[in-house]
Structure formats: C-alpha cells, structure tokens
Design a protein that fits this description.
By secondary structure, the chain is mainly alpha-helical. The chain contains two helices and no strands.
Length: about 80
C-alpha cells in the first residue's frame, strides 16, 4: 500500500492521456494567442487605412480649392482712401 501512494503512475495509457490533455490545453492557448495577435494586427492595418484615406481626402480638398482659386482669380479691391 505504501509503495502505491509514493510512486508516480507508471501506466502508459494514463501517461498518454495526460500528455494528450496537456497538448490540447497548450494548443488551445496558442490558438487564443494567435487570434489576439490577428485581431491587433487587423486593428492596426485598419487604423493606417483610415489615416491614409483622411490624408487623401484632405489633399483632394486642398487641391480642388487651389484649382478653383486659380481658375477664378480675385479682382483687386480698390479702396477710396488710397488717393488721400
């Protein structure tokens, strides 16, 4: 009786089941970590896309304003007090 309590399990089937259980748990942890990494990468790429799209929109607005001012130049204003 004493020998059974102090000795670790020597049954090969039980050892295989424990090893299989441990590997399944590790695989589940790896899959969760990979999913977190994939999510953070997608959020980063989406953020970069938003910044680039906003920059293109700002450039489009600025160039359209510049083009409009170039085609419609402002006439110089003549003030009445210039000759005094």
């Amino acid at each position: 009786m004493h020998a059974d309590i102090s000795k670790p399990e020597q049954d090969p089937e039980a050892l295989l089941r424990l090893l299989d259980l441990e590997l399944r748990q590790k695989r589940a942890l790896w899959q969760r970590a990979a999913a977190r990494h994939r999510t953070s990468r997608m959020v980063g790429l989406f953020s970069i896309f938003i910044v680039i799209a906003a920059a293109f929109l700002a450039l489009f607005f600025l160039f359209s304003q510049a083009n409009e001012e170039r085609t419609n130049p402002r006439s110089p204003t003549i003030s009445n007090s210039a000759g005094r």
